[in-house]
């Protein structure tokens, strides 16, 4: 693996290109751990800063992913996910939806959540924190808030490995008619990156969702932090 320091192409771009070509050619299989940045630095005879920048570029492209405390690995093909199924809160199938429940509690809404749900700040809500699991890896970190008076008797066992959509529809017979979704880039702080098993400062998708009933009441407010190395989103438009 040679680079040419006489070229006008930045060194990190040359390192990036060589690593990318090896991945595309299948010389480094999916799941393979990369050499350390120091080892790559010695191999290419460049600084570790140059190697780090090249690796970050490949992470951003989806060729690599970084696991906290473990290293950098070759990514598999990202799973295609229909954007409309996320917004509609349902996959349209009976498949299982593995989740790891992190926290489940009843608490006062507080000013921010009350504003989102259009309730009083003293009103009780159910706060649910979960990890969505895909192939035994954490895919997304979920924070969901439900008005407690609309979901009487809800317990942690009721939400095990199921979608909030199914819970509201099947357990509480609530008709959902629309959801408004905001999508933003988000940089993970240390505590959230640990849960998603990526390096602190990793960029992910932040999805903010507000769900309305047939009566135009807000029944759910959620935030999702989704790893961008595991899924790629698409939508189809009829022309």
Short description:
With 239 residues, the chain is of the alpha+beta class. It has helices at residues 11-24, 37-44, 48-61, 83-87, 110-117, 164-171, 190-196, and strands at residues 64-67, 71-74, 79-82, 99-108, 124-134, 137-147, 176-187, 203-213, 218-226, 231-234. A hairpin with a 3-residue loop joins strand 1 (64-67) and strand 2 (71-74).
Count of individual domains = 2
Largest sheet: 6 strands, antiparallel
**N- to C-terminal distance:** 47 Å
Which architecture name of the largest domain does CATH use? 3-Layer(aba) Sandwich
User: Portion of residues in helices?
Assistant: 25-40%
Task: Output the number of helix runs.
Answer: 7
How much of the sequence is in beta strands?
Answer: 25-35%
CATH class of the largest domain: Alpha Beta
The succession of helices and strands, N to C, reads HHHEEEHEHEEHEHEEE
CATH topology of the largest domain: Chorismate lyase
Enumerate the strands of the largest sheet in spatial order, edge to edge or round the barrel: 4-5-6-9-8-7
Question: What overall geometry do the principal axes of the alpha carbons give?
Answer: elongated
Strand segment count: 10
Structure description:
- With 239 residues, this protein is of the alpha+beta class.
- It folds into two domains: 11-74, Arc Repressor Mutant, subunit A; 79-234, 3-Layer(aba) Sandwich (Chorismate lyase).
- It contains seven helices and ten strands.
- The strands form three sheets. Strands 4-5-6-9-8-7 form a six-stranded antiparallel β-sheet. Strands 1-2 form a two-stranded antiparallel ribbon. Strands 3-10 form a two-stranded parallel sheet.
- The chain is elongated and about 70 Å long.
- The model has no long low-confidence stretch (mean pLDDT 86).
């Amino acid at each position: 693996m040679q680079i040419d320091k006489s070229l006008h192409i930045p060194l990190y771009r040359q390192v990036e290109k060589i690593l990318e070509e090896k991945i595309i050619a299948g010389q480094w299989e999916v799941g393979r751990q990369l050499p350390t940045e120091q080892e790559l630095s010695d191999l290419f005879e460049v600084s570790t800063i140059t190697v780090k920048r090249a690796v970050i570029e490949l992470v951003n492209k989806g060729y690599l992913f970084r696991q906290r405390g473990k290293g950098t690995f070759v990514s598999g093909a990202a799973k295609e996910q229909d954007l409309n199924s996320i917004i509609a809160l349902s996959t349209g199938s009976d498949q299982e939806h593995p989740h790891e429940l992190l926290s489940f509690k009843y608490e006062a809404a507080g000013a921010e959540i009350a504003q989102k749900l259009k309730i009083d700040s003293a009103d009780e809500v159910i706060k649910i924190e979960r990890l969505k699991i895909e192939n035994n890896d954490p895919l997304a970190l979920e924070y969901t808030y439900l008005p407690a008076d609309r979901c009487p008797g809800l317990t942690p066992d009721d939400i095990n490995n199921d979608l909030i959509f199914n819970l509201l529809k099947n357990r509480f017979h609530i008709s959902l008619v629309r959801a408004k979704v905001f999508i933003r880039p988000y940089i993970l702080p240390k505590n959230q990156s640990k849960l998603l098993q990526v390096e602190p400062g990793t960029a992910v998708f932040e999805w903010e969702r507000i769900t309305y009933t047939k009566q135009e009441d807000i029944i759910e407010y959620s935030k999702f932090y989704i790893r961008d190395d595991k899924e790629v989103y698409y939508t189809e438009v009829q022309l």
